[in-house]
Every structure is written in C-alpha cells, then in structure tokens.
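Late entry, MV4 complex.
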Amino acid sequence: MFDKILIANRGEIACRISRTCRHLGIRTVAVYSDPDRQALHVQACDEAWPIGPAPARESYLNAERILEVARRSGAQAIHPGYGFLSENAEFAQACADAGIVFIGPSPEAIRAMGSKSAAKAIMERAGVPLVPGDHGEDQCPDRLAQVAQEIGYPVLIKASAGGGGKGMRRVDHPEDFAAALEAARRESAAAFGDDRVLIEKYLIQPRHVEVQVFADTHGHVVHLFERDCSVQRRHQKVIEEAPAPGLDAIQRRQLGETAVAAARAIGYVGAGTVEFIMDGRGAFYFMEMNTRLQVEHPVTEMITGLDLVAWQLQVACGEPLPRNQEGIGFTGHAFEARIYAEDADRDFLPATGVIRHLRTPEASPHVRIDTGVGEGDEISVHYDPMIAKLVVWDQDRERALNRLRRALRSFIVVGTTTNVDFLARVAVHPDFRGARIDTSFIEAHRDALCPRPGALGPAPVVAAALHELLRVEQDSRDQAYHSGDPFSPWHATHGWQLNGDGYRALHFMDPSRDRDLQVEVHGHGEEYQLTWAGGTHRARGELQGDGHLHLQLDGIHLDAWVLEDGPRLTVVLDAETHTLVRHDPLAAGMDDEVKDGSLVAPMPGMVVTVHVGPGDRVAEGDPLMVLEAMKMEYVIHAFAPGEVEAVYYGEGDQVAEGATLLALHMEEEEQ
Ligand code: MV4
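Prediction complete; structure with ligand written out below:
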C-alpha cells in the first residue's frame, strides 16, 4: 500500500479522500490555491503545498505544479477526486511518465470514453444496448436525415464531443431537421472544436440510472448496484439515491451485468460509472461512462457498507478487488442531497458569501455529512459552489426519505443563499415520495419547488421579534449585573412607563416580499403581545446562545433558529428559511441596488455575449448580455422598453457582483 498520496483536489472530496487515507495509515499531501490556505482539506492532511492563485486553471488545473509537488513531497500516487484533472488523459499520462501512480483508469480508457460516438461504437460491439440511432460515422446531412427518418421522430441530435447536455437538439418534425443539424454543428464546433454529431431516437422523460463498477488489474470486474440520479437541473444532479426505486431483481441484475460488460469492453481498471437512460417501460440504454469516482458515490457506500476510495487505492496498488460479485450485497436505501450556494428562486443563480453560521444535523450511522467548508470560509466564484453533501440511510426508501427531510430541517447556513429549502420541497413532494421521478421532474414541478414567496406567516416574525427582545433583556441583565446599581429602573426593559402601558416598536424589512414590518410590542413580564399587520399574537420564548429559540406563539410551542449576520436575521422554522432585516433608522439611506436606468451584475462572473450596443432600441425582456459563472450562463434582460445608452463591458470581461453593466434610457411612461 502507498506510504504517501497527493490529493489533487479541494473541498469535500479532498476531505473525504483524506479520511480513508488516515484510516489506512497513508500520509496525505494537500495542495491549495491562495484563498484555500486555511481550508478544511488543508487542515485534514499531513502536509500542504501552495499551487497558485485562485483561478482553477492556475491552481487545481495546473498539472505541472501538481506533479512538481508530488515529486518534491515524495508522494507515490495522486488521487484526482472528481472534476479538475480527474478525466484528463494527458495528466494521467504525465503521472505515468513521472513514475507516479494516477489513482484512476489508464489514459487510453479515459480517451476512449471521452468521445461519445467512439464510446457508443465500443459498447455496441460489446452488446451493450444503445438508443436506436446512428453514431455518426457518415456525417453527410442527407444520410443523417435518412437516419432520422428511419428511427422516427422525435429525434435527438447530439454533439459527438459533447457531454452534460451541451450540444443537444431535439427535432420533432422532418422539415426542421436540416436547420437543426446546421445549428447543432455550429454550436458543437464553437463549444468543442468538433462539429461531428450523432442522431438518436429521443426518449421522452427518461430516468437517469447509473451503475457503479469496479475493475482490478487481475481481470476482475464487479458492479456495486445502481443509483438513480434523475432529479437534475441543467444536467446538474440535485438529489441522488441508491438503489433506483421501482426496479425488480431481474432488471437490477441485467443493469449490473450490462455495466460490467461495458467496463470489460474497454479493459477498464479502477472505479467507473456506467450511465444509462431508462424509458417508462424499464428499457435502458447506454449513455456514457464516467472514468472517475462520482460525487454521488456515498449513497453506494451507505447501502453496501464499502469504502470505494479504499478500493481505488487497493486496485491502484495492484491488489485484487476485496470482494467478488457474490460477496457484494446491499441493504436499505440511501439519499444524497447536494447543498449548494445558489438561489433557487432566481433560476439557481450561484451565490457567494462568507459562511457566518453553519449548523448541520448530528452525524450517525444514518446521517453522513461530507463537507469541505466551515464557519468563516468563503464560497467564491472560482470553484463549484458546493457547501456539503447530506447523505442519509435507512432500512427502506420511506424511512430514508423521512430522515432526509428531518436532516434538511436542521441544516442551517447563514451568510450565503442556499438551496436547502428547495431540497426540502423536493423531498416532501408527493411525486418524489411516490418515486414518480424522471429527468423532467424539476421542470414539471417548478411552481411547487420554487414557489413565489407566499404571505409571511406570524411565526417567523414572532421569532425575529422575540430574538430582539430577549437579546435586549439579556444584555440589560448583563449590564445590571456588572453595574453598581443592579435594580436601577434604567435597566428595565419591560417598557413600563409612568403613565400607561409601555410599548416599543420593532422595525423589520422583508426583502423577499419587499415589505416593511412595524411590530408594536407590549411587554408583560415573561409574555409579550406583538401587533403588526399580521395581527396580534401572544409570545414568550427562551433564547439559547447558539441561536436556538424555543418559543410559544399563542400557546403553541415551536422550535426555531434565529441567526444574525449584521442587520440580517435568518429565521429557520419548519424547514423554511426566512430572512428579515433589522431596520436601523440611523443607518445611511440604503442605496437602491439597481440604479434607475442601469443594469447591474446579479453575481460575479464573465461576460460571454453582448447582444446590444449604444443607440439600440430594446423591448422589455430583450436579452442584452449573457454572463457565465460556475459553468452556467445567465441572460441579462431589458427590464423595460427603451434605448441602450452605454455598454460598460465586453465579451471576456470579468465583472463583480453589483457592477453596472449597461445604461438603458427608458421610454417615458404613457400618460
Ligand atoms: C438523451 C435524452 C433523451 N433521448 N438521449 C442529457 C445529457 C446527456 N447525459 C444525455 N442526455 C440525454 N440524452 C436520448 N436519446 C435525454 C437526455 C437528458 C438527460 C439525461 C440524463 C439526465 C438528465 C437529462 C436531462 C435532460 C435530457
């Protein structure tokens, strides 16, 4: 077994790999970019080496620097994790050339699976079922149109060098085929430098079911059952589960054996994932093979009880697989929810920020949290905005899903926007609970999963008000205790006044509803009476130091979390997160975020397309500019009809959140 391994990654996967290495007594070398100097993965490893500035292409993708660190630190192997260099055949080759073991498949296997059409041709020869279609040997438009006719519409035109949904076009009618083919070719050439395409029968609302496979250097190949990853958004997995619901033993065995055949077909070594799409009848077809450990591997580990990173290290050492197929079973059901810094209510815009508070559910044999960030860490634009993976297991799907819901309720992040509420809404959705899932799930249930904020109920307002009132009481008690005159009436906080019943006013803003809340407080000993537009309510509570608030609202006992981040109060109640902002009348006038007539960047990113120039007339909703951040694109639209006065950034420019991008002279309102 290795003595020392360099982990060429960051965040949760780097922490996760270091855990297994520690269990196996293997020393670990971390690499870090400048902003990651204090990161958890650096603290988790035995030594840590700087590899460059923040941008990934100058740090975690800096193959030469990483190899140099491996040589100088004496690491015998490099584990790439996922993403970054994990599927880079040149890097795998460079490791081999440097006599350093690359924990993963051979460069040849990575290359073979890198081209969609080449992979499909190999799989076809191995008898792996493919979606009816053509793999693009002959790129003649007439030939491709004939293939589309033969397989029947709707068809899908896919870029051979594409992946992750990029360069795909659905065509429903023959008369649209030629134009769609041209457009798909142009897009593919622009995105991948290769305009070859393949044509397939379009499967309506398929499921994404993938099989974990493992192969060693002695010819043994096994599968570790399947995962269902159908709940995706823009080809980004959101919640994964194992095993796939609704499969019978025969389907499960067929899937596993087919995936093993696929791995054998390319002489695969190491951990791999064979991805299939499955139609409503349960027929499944090879989609692609990933030659790395997947983000969602923990759900497989939870149902099999196996450590897949340990297997990777053993295989890379030339050891045989620890189990044969008969020795691999599974029990129960597991889910993984990916907790991201993103705003589900703003089309999943990536969010950034510093994590002020991070509260996670208690870990147990049922609940596992893989994370690479802690309080004080920044979620930046440079890397994937993943905060953590919440993984749960129980004896069956129903119980596991209930655990997921409970765990999401006590997963609290303050300091950046997260998708936790969105995940909780997926977990409670009746179709998800009923395992009525496919790749269209999120779009099909968008309104339920990303509801417009409803009316703000009394509980979050009462929780915020009690937090303020109890904090004032606590501070006054502290002051009285430390003052020379603890019983002075100046320390009283119950609002009593000489003539009449004292009362105070609390002023909050509710930014998601653009509302002001004036709460009138009548304090009577332990109990308060709170009045605002939401009515009058009796309230009392006990505030713990960590923000946990046990409250009684009109006699009903509730538990809430109220966490402060400057003037912002994050109130978490019954799996819903509310942000209220304490209004400080002394604070300088809040500048409007959007200066009239100008459009600001909603997030940091890079300008990829500018559609307009000064003098152009635009209608409301016209696309003006496209920004890219975290591998996704966001269109900036005209918020009103008018004329473009100025464009302040061009294609390729980096912009900070809040940067003014364009100035728009709005048409005068009709009188
Ligand atoms: C398909 C398909 C329907 N029919 N192929 C999306 C990206 C890549 N993984 C392949 N994808 C698809 N290929 C045929 N012939 C539907 C998808 C698809 C999809 C597949 C898996 C997971 C999520 C998806 C979301 C949209 C479309």
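The chain is about 25% helix and 35% strand. Will revisit in the morning.
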